[in-house]
Write a structure and sequence with these properties.
With 229 residues, the chain is mainly alpha-helical. The chain contains 8 helices and 2 strands. The protein has one domain. The protein starts with 5 loop residues before the first helix and ends with a helix. Bound molecules: heme C (2 copies).
C-alpha cells in the first residue's frame, strides 16, 4: 500500500497536512480540482473511500469490480475513473498482487466517509504498455540482475514511481483519450508530478502530501508555481 501510494492519495488530511489516520483509506473529498466541469471549469475530485463500508466504501463491490477499478479505471457502475487515479500503471501488476490488495482492502476497518461524485467522463485512459518500460541494462550474469528485474516490476508495473516520475500528457477528457504518460520518457522525471501536470490543482496545498511534496528544485519549481498559481 505504501509502494503503490494508495494510502497517500486515499486518506484525508488534517488541517496541518498530515494524514488523518482515523480515516485510513477512507477517501479524501477534497483531493484535487480538475478541469472537467461544464465549459472546462474546475470541479473537486475526491479520492474514493476504499474501506469495506457498505454505503460509502467498496463493501458491496465484488472482488472483480474492485480490481476493474484499480487496474482498468472503470467503476462498479461502468463509469470511467479520472486518470488522476493511476490505474493505467497498476494495470500491469501480477494477478496475485492485485488479489492481495483486494484481500487487504476487505480486511481494514470500515469507515463511513461519503465522497461526492464528479461529472461523468467518456472513457478511461489506456494502460501503459509493459513492454515499453525500459529493461535493465545489466548482463544476465550480473549478480544484481535478478534484483534489477524485480525492481523494474516494482517501480514500473506496480508502484506509483513511474506515475510521478514520468511526464504526464493529459487527462482522459475525450471519447478516446491518449496515453496518460509519455512512454518515450518513462522515469525521466516530470516538471510537476502527478495530476498537476494534467491541469489539476490541489484544493488546498495542505490537504495532500502528494501535491505538497512536489519538486522544489529549479528543474521543477517554475512549472509547479504556474500550475498552482
Ligand atoms: C495519485 C493518487 C492516487 C493513487 C496513488 C491511487 N488512487 Fe485510487 N483513486 C484516486 C482518485 C482521484 C480516484 C477517484 C477517481 C474518480 O472518481 O474518477 C480513485 C479511485 C479509486 C477506486 C474507485 C473506487 C470508487 O468508489 O469509484 C479504487 C478501487 C481505487 N482508487 C483503488 C486504488 C488502489 C488499490 C490504489 C493503490 C494500488 C490506488 N487507488 C492509488 C487517486 C489515487
Ligand atoms: C507522489 C509522487 C511520487 C511518487 C509516487 C514517487 N516519487 Fe520519487 N520523487 C517525487 C518528487 C516530487 C521528487 C523530488 C523531491 C525533491 O526534489 O525534493 C522525488 C525524488 C525522488 C528521488 C531523488 C532523485 C533526485 O534526483 O534527487 C528518487 C531516487 C526517487 N524519487 C525515487 C522514487 C521511487 C523508487 C519511487 C517508487 C517507489 C518514487 N520515487 C515514487 C515524487 C514521487
Amino acid at each position: 500500500m505504501h509502494l503503490l501510494a494508495c494510502t497517500d492519495c486515499h486518506t484525508p488530511r488534517k488541517a496541518d497536512g498530515s494524514p488523518d489516520t482515523t480515516k485510513l483509506l477512507a477517501g479524501s473529498a477534497t483531493f484535487a480540482m480538475a478541469p472537467i466541469g461544464p465549459d472546462g471549469g474546475l470541479v473537486p475530485i475526491g479520492t474514493s473511500n476504499l474501506t469495506p463500508d457498505p454505503t460509502t466504501g467498496v463493501g458491496n463491490w465484488t472482488d472483480a469490480q474492485i480490481k476493474t477499478a484499480f487496474l482498468d479505471g472503470v467503476d462498479d457502475q461502468g463509469k470511467p475513473l479520472i486518470s488522476i487515479m493511476p490505474y493505467f500503471a497498476f494495470h500491469n501488476m501480477r494477478a496475485s498482487d492485485a488479489d492481495a490488495i483486494v484481500a487487504f482492502l476487505r480486511s481494514i476497518p470500515a469507515v463511513s466517509n461519503p465522497i461526492p461524485e464528479h461529472p461523468d467522463l467518456l472513457a478511461p485512459a489506456p494502460p501503459i504498455s509493459a513492454a515499453a518500460i525500459p529493461n535493465t541494462t545489466l548482463a544476465s550474469t550480473d549478480p544484481n540482475y535478478a534484483s534489477a528485474v524485480r525492481g523494474r516490476y516494482l517501480a514500473g508495473q506496480t508502484g506509483a514511481c513511474i506515475e510521478c516520475h514520468t511526464k504526464h500528457l493529459g487527462l482522459n477528457l475525450g471519447a478516446s483519450p491518449g496515453p496518460a504518460l509519455d512512454a518515450t520518457k518513462f522515469f525521466a522525471g516530470a516538471r510537476s508530478s502527478s495530476a498537476i501536470s494534467s491541469g489539476c490543482r490541489p484544493c488546498s496545498p495542505r490537504r495532500s502530501s502528494l501535491r505538497t511534496s512536489l519538486p522544489t528544485r529549479p528543474r521543477g519549481s517554475s512549472g509547479l508555481r504556474r500550475a498552482l498559481s
